[in-house]
C-alpha cells in the first residue's frame, strides 16, 4: 500500500486496515481527512462506523487501553470550594463509573465548506456535505468524572460571574499547536441533560483509533471540533482553552476579515459552540443519473444544535418559490420510531429504499412538545416525486425548535465554517425508455 511508504515518519503507523476507502471521498491523506459518500450515508439511521467521516489535524496516536491514562485537573481559582489538584484516571476507572449511551450526530463545523469556497477562497480542508454522521456513543458522563475529581455535583451559583470552562487536550501532535485542545463551558458539562460523555464506545464497540481510542469527548449538539479525541487531560479552569483550535479557528469572522488581516479579528469574536440548523440532499447524488418522467424518492439528513429538535424538513421543486413537507424519520432513544410531517401520504417511503429506519407510523402528536427533552440525533427525511420533470431541481431546508431555518444563500466567512445555506441539487437527467425527453 502506498500509504505505508509515507515520507513523514509521523504517519507510518496509521490505521489503514480500519479505513474502508470505498465509502469515502478522501480529502487529505496526511492528516487523514475523509468524508462519507452521501448515498451510503442515508442508508442507516445510525451511521455504521465504517461510513463515519474522519477528521484529523495530525497523525493518529497508537495507545493501548492498559497504557492509557488521563489527568483531571481542577483549577482552584475557578472553583474555590472544590477539592483541588490533579488526579490520574485510567480506563478501568472510567469503566467503574455508571455507563450511559446517547445517539448523537457529530458534524464538523467545516461541513459544506465547498459552498463557501465557491464564493471566495477560504482556509481549511474543502469538504462537501459528508462530514456529518449519527452514532450511538457509550461511556461515562463527563460530569461524573468531574464530580469524582471534586467538582460539586450541584454546581449552580447564580452569583458566580467568572466564566468557567472545561478544557480537553489530546495525545499526539497537531498541525497548528503543541497538541489538539479545546474547551466548553463547565455549566454546560455539569447539566446532566446535556449528556456530555467521556466516550469509550461507538456503535456498541470500542472506539476505533481514528475516532479517539481509548477515550474521547462526546458533546452532543456542539460542533465536532470540541469532541476531542485521544484524551490526555481534562482541566477545569476559569478561562477558555488558549489553544489555536479554540482561539484562531472555528469562529465565524465578519465578512471583511481575510487571510491578511484576520489577526485583528480572532480575539473579537467568540469560539463556536452549538451547531446550527442544517439539511442536505443525499439522494440524488451529483453523479447519479435520474430518469425523467419516472418516480423518484429523494432522501437526506437534517440536524440542529444545542438539543434543538428538527421540527420539519421542506422540499421545493421550483427553486424555493413553493415548499412541500418531507417525511421525517427519527428513532428515539427507547428504540421506538416516530415518523411525522408528511403531506404526500401516497409515498411508500423507506420500504423501497433499503433503509434500516422503520417507517411504521407510530405518529407522535408533534404539537405536544416535551420541552425538557433534547434532540441530539439527526433525522433522515424522504420526499416522493411522482414524476421527475425535465427541468428537475430539488431544494431542501429544515426548521428547528428555536424557529431557525436555513439562509437562502451561503454567507461567506474566512474560515469557511457553519455553511447551512438552503441545499440545492440539480441532478443529471436521463431520458426514460419511450420518453420524448432529450437529455441534451
Ligand atoms: N485530538 C483531536 N481531536 C479532534 C480532532 C483532532 O484533529 N484531534 N478533530 C476534531 C474535529 S474538527 C472533528 S469534526 C471531530 C471529528 O471526529 P471523527 O474523526 O471521529 O469523525 O473530532 C474532533 N476532535
Ligand atoms: Mo471539525
Question: Would you give an account of this structure?
Answer:
One of its GO terms (biological process) is sulfur compound metabolic process. The protein is mostly beta strands and 440 residues long. The protein has six helices and 23 strands. It has helices at residues 38-41, 91-96, 113-117, 142-148, 186-190, 244-247, and strands at 24-28, 33-36, 69-74, 85-90, 99-107, 132-141, 165-170, 181-185, 197-202, 205-206, 216-218, 231-237, 278-283, 289-291, 296-303, 310-316, 324-325, 327-331, 337-340, 379-385, 394-400, 423-425, 428-430. The protein has a five-stranded mixed sheet with strand order 4-3-12-7-8. Strands 5, 6, 9, 10 and 11 form a five-stranded antiparallel sheet that branches. It is globular. The protein starts with 23 loop residues before the first strand and ends in a 10-residue tail after the last strand. The model is unreliable at 334-338 and 342-364 (pLDDT under 50).
Order of helices and strands: EEHEEHEHEHEEHEEEEHEEEEEEEEEEE
How large a portion of the residues is in β-strands, by DSSP E? 25-35%
Largest sheet: 5 strands, mixed
Annotation, overall tally of beta strands: 23
Low-confidence stretches: 334-338, 342-364
Query: What order do the strands of the largest sheet run in, or round the barrel if closed?
Result: 4-3-12-7-8
Secondary structural class: mainly beta
Helical content band: under 10%
Measured distance between first and last alpha carbons: 42 Å
What sort of overall outline do the alpha carbons produce when their principal axes are compared?
A: globular
Ligand list: the ligand Nc1nc2c(c(=O)[nH]1)N[C@H]1C(S)=C(S)[C@@H](COP(=O)(O)O)O[C@H]1N2, molybdenum atom
Query: For the CA atoms, what is the radius of gyration?
Result: 22 Å
Overall pLDDT metric: 89
What is the count of DSSP helices, taking H or I runs of 4+ residues?
A: 6
Amino acid at each position: 500500500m502506498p500509504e505505508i511508504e509515507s515520507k513523514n515518519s509521523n504517519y507510518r503507523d496509521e490505521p489503514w486496515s480500519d479505513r474502508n476507502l470505498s465509502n469515502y471521498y478522501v480529502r487529505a491523506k496526511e492528516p487523514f481527512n475523509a468524508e462519507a459518500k452521501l448515498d451510503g450515508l442515508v442508508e442507516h439511521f445510525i451511521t455504521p462506523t465504517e461510513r463515519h467521516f474522519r477528521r484529523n489535524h495530525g497523525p493518529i496516536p497508537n495507545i493501548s487501553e492498559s497504557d492509557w491514562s488521563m489527568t483531571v485537573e481542577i483549577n482552584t481559582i475557578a472553583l474555590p470550594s472544590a477539592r483541588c489538584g490533579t488526579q490520574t484516571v485510567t480506563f478501568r476507572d472510567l469503566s467503574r463509573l455508571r455507563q450511559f449511551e446517547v445517539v448523537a450526530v457529530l458534524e464538523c463545523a467545516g461541513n459544506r465548506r465547498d459552498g463557501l469556497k465557491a464564493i471566495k477562497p477560504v482556509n481549511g480542508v474543502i469538504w462537501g456535505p459528508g462530514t456529518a454522521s449519527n452514532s450511538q456513543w457509550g461511556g461515562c458522563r463527563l460530569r461524573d468524572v468531574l464530580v469524582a475529581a471534586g467538582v460539586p455535583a450541584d454546581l449552580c451559583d447564580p452569583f458566580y460571574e467568572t466564566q468557567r470552562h472545561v478544557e480537553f487536550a489530546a495525545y499526539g501532535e497537531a498541525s497548528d499547536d503543541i497538541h489538539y485542545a479545546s474547551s466548553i463551558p463547565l455549566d454546560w458539562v455539569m447539566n446532566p441533560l446535556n449528556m456530555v460523555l467521556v466516550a469509550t464506545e461507538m456503535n456498541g464497540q470500542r472506539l476505533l483509533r481514528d475516532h479517539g481510542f481509548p477515550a474521547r469527548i462526546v458533546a452532543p449538539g456542539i460542533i465536532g471540533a470540541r469532541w476531542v479525541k485521544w484524551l490526555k487531560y481534562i482541566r477545569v479552569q476559569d478561562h477558555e482553552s488558549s489553544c489555536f483550535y479554540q482561539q484562531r479557528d472555528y469562529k465565524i469572522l465578519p465578512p471583511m476579515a481575510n487571510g491578511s488581516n484576520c489577526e485583528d479579528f480572532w480575539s473579537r469574536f467568540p469560539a463556536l459552540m452549538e451547531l446550527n440548523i442544517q439539511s442536505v440532499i443525499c439522494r440524488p447524488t451529483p453523479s447519479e443519473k435520474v430518469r425523467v418522467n419516472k418516480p423518484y424518492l429523494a432522501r437526506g439528513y437534517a440536524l440542529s444544535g444545542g438539543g434543538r429538535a428538527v421540527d420539519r424538513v421542506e422540499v421545493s421543486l421550483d427553486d424555493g418559490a413553493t415548499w412541500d413537507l418531507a417525511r421525517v424519520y427519527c428513532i428515539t432513544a427507547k428504540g421506538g420510531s416516530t415518523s411525522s410531517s408528511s403531506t404526500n401520504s401516497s409515498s411508500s417511503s423507506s420500504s423501497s429504499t433499503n433503509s434500516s429506519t422503520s417507517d411504521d407510523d407510530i405518529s407522535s402528536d408533534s404539537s405536544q412538545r416535551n420541552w425538557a427533552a433534547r434532540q441530539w440525533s439527526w433525522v433522515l427525511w424522504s420526499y416522493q416525486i411522482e414524476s421527475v420533470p425535465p427541468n428537475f431541481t430539488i431544494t431542501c431546508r429544515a426548521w428547528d425548535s428555536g424557529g431557525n431555518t436555513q439562509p437562502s444563500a451561503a454567507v461567506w466567512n474566512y474560515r469557511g465554517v457553519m455553511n447551512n445555506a438552503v441545499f440545492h441539487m440539480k441532478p443529471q437527467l436521463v431520458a426514460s425508455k419511450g420518453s420524448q425527453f432529450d437529455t441534451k
